[in-house]
Design a protein that fits this description.
Layout (H helix, E strand, L loop, with lengths): L14 H15 L6 E2 L11 H13 L16 H13 L9 E4 L2 H7 L11 E5 L4 H8 L4 E5 L17 E5 L11 H14 L2 E5 L25 E6 L12 E4 L5 E2 L2 E2 H12 L5 H10 L2 H15 L1 H11 L4 E3 L5 E5 L6 H12 L1 E2 L1 E2 L10 E5 L4 H14 L1
Parallel strand pairs: 1-13, 3-4, 3-5, 5-6, 6-7
Antiparallel strand pairs: 2-8, 7-8, 9-10, 11-12, 12-15, 14-15
Helix pairs in contact: 2-8, 3-8, 10-12
The structure holds D-malate.
């Protein structure tokens, strides 16, 4: 047996593991410190009650012989796929239930989809900075990565390159910068992908945070996307499902390369390597995507959005560059006094007992930047910003 030595190319610890480690080391050394976490985007508002109730009812069903269920369909129960289908229909987007699979969260599906690809000639395009999972899985697979610099100069939104590529990761609204494609800017990517035969892996985890009408909620709102894109959705940040684990993936019928249907390949992959998402969480997903569930999700998002001005006002007062917050739950800021990202992380932890996320963890172009999450209470966020204001 030979080992996958590509693992040597990874950081010692995944970004959020390293943050958790540094935070717990600090707490160990300073047990009296009251730490406020604005780091990993973990939610603080409880699960949408309509979804929690549905999961309780589903669990109850499993106690009784007449309603007990064993193995479910690997690709997801029809009721769950239909709930996703209806969610898209409300945005005016037609998706077949058969193009939707239900999984145990967006992270797994984004990582697992790479089973469908081997090394192409042209490489994998990854925006920088961006959610670190894309880079980590591409490194594990030994892919050749071409980074797309996202900077203040291009408003953190990458443009298609002049050269061809095989696979493209896009995340809009972007984690961490909050930069969000307009219909026109995303159309340019779809046209490019169709022209060069590349496939776009579209991370749609934050679409529900979009406030502006010129920004699409799905890549399938764009003409031509059905022949070049796969989309991933999540319930984590809307219904409070970070602990439940539930998400979905859409592979359109028209996505075909070398005579092979990617939907069929994905179904082969999932039915072979995955036994299907739990019945209980799929009932939770169904309820979270119901009219009542979405009302609750939007109220939850409203609660997080109240934190945005708490953060941005302090940054404005201090003359610190920032963006994000409008269409995303994250604020992206330049570290004060030219500090490096991890330096600022340690500084804030030490001086303000506040945890954020170092920008460089999202890529080289994130160096000297920092991310603050709005996923916390109004009180904690206000307190965190008062403490930060005193030390920057
Ligand atoms: C983040 O903080 O970037 C996300 O919460 C991480 C994730 O969704 O896995």
């Amino acid at each position: 047996m030979k080992l996958n030595t590509n693992y040597q190319k990874l950081e010692e610890n995944y970004l959020f593991t390293e943050i958790a480690k540094r935070t717990s080391d600090f707490i160990h050394a300073h047990p009296e410190a009251h730490i406020i976490k604005l780091g990993i985007g973990d939610v603080t508002v409880p699960i949408a009650s309509v979804a929690a109730d549905a999961m309780i009812r589903a669990t109850e069903e499993l106690k009784h012989p007449e309603t007990f269920r064993g193995y479910g369909p690997e690709l997801g129960y029809f009721f769950a796929r239909q709930a996703v289908q209806t969610y898209y229909a409300d945005y005016g987007i037609k998706i077949d239930a058969d193009e939707i699979t239900i999984g145990d969260g967006i992270g797994s599906d984004i990582a697992n989809i790479t089973d469908l690809f081997v090394h192409g000639d042209n490489g994998v395009l990854i925006p920088d900075p961006v959610y670190p999972l894309y880079k980590a899985t591409s490194l594990m697979d030994g892919q050749r990565i071409i980074y797309l610099p996202c900077t203040e100069q291009n408003n953190f939104l990458p443009e298609p390159p002049a050269v061809p590529s095989d696979l493209i990761y896009l995340c809009s609204p972007n984690n961490p910068t909050g930069a969000t494609f307009t219909f026109d800017r995303l159309q340019a990517w779809v046209d490019y992908a169709n022209r060069v035969g590349a496939i776009i892996l579209y991370d749609d985890a934050y679409e529900r945070f979009i406030e502006e009408d010129d920004k699409p909620h799905s890549i399938f709102a764009i003409d031509g996307a059905r022949t070049c894109a796969i989309e991933f959705g999540s319930l984590s940040k809307t219904a409070g499902f970070t602990c439940v684990r539930s998400g979905y993936t859409i592979v359109p019928n028209e996505l075909v390369r070398e005579g092979m249907s990617l939907k069929k390949m994905w179904h082969q992959r999932q039915t072979t390597k995955y036994n299907g998402a739990p019945y209980v969480t799929q009932r939770g997903l169904e309820a979270a995507l119901s009219a009542e569930g979405l009302l609750q999700a939007d109220m939850t998002i409203g609660i997080y959005k109240r934190n945005v001005p708490l953060i941005t006002q302090t940054l404005e007062e201090k003359g610190i560059f920032y963006c994000g917050g409008a269409n995303s739950p994250y604020i992206w800021l330049r570290c004060p006094d030219g500090m490096r990202s991890w330096q600022f992380f340690d500084y804030l932890l030490e001086k303000a007992h506040v945890v954020g996320t170092p920008g460089v963890g999202f890529g080289e172009y994130g160096e000297n930047y920092f991310r603050l999450s709005t996923f916390n209470t109004f009180e904690n966020t206000g307190e965190a910003m008062q403490r930060i204001a005193k030390v920057i």
